[in-house]
């Protein structure tokens, strides 16, 4: 629209008034364009920030799934498990050795050999005394019959 259109249309009685109407419409249009531009810039900033964040997440996830990284993590885990197993095995062997020592000591304490030896010695002593007593009685009985 031009100023002449407004004047001819009776919306503006004079060319100056028509210029004011056009000027006001231009200012309003400029304000609307600036507002739309601001909203568009904000929407673009939000969209770009959202896409950047999503890209970063996907990139991080892909890096975490990289075969070399996964292999390195699994090797680290394997080393930790080996150390734990070795430590557990050493402890188990140590406990088994200690238990064997305790059982050996108990067995030695319960060993019947010394008791058997003492009993055999006692039996020999008693047999000797019995033989002495029997000889003495036999001698006494012989003396009586003579």
UniProtKB/TrEMBL annotation:
<protein>
    <submittedName>
        <fullName>Exodeoxyribonuclease 7 large subunit</fullName>
        <ecNumber>3.1.11.6</ecNumber>
    </submittedName>
</protein>
<dbReference type="InterPro" id="IPR003753">
    <property type="entry name" value="Exonuc_VII_L"/>
</dbReference>
<dbReference type="GO" id="GO:0006308">
    <property type="term" value="P:DNA catabolic process"/>
</dbReference>
<dbReference type="Pfam" id="PF02601">
    <property type="entry name" value="Exonuc_VII_L"/>
</dbReference>
<feature type="domain" description="Exonuclease VII large subunit C-terminal">
    <location>
        <begin position="1"/>
        <end position="145"/>
    </location>
</feature>
<dbReference type="InterPro" id="IPR020579">
    <property type="entry name" value="Exonuc_VII_lsu_C"/>
</dbReference>
<dbReference type="GO" id="GO:0009318">
    <property type="term" value="C:exodeoxyribonuclease VII complex"/>
</dbReference>
<keyword id="KW-0378">Hydrolase</keyword>
<dbReference type="GO" id="GO:0008855">
    <property type="term" value="F:exodeoxyribonuclease VII activity"/>
</dbReference>
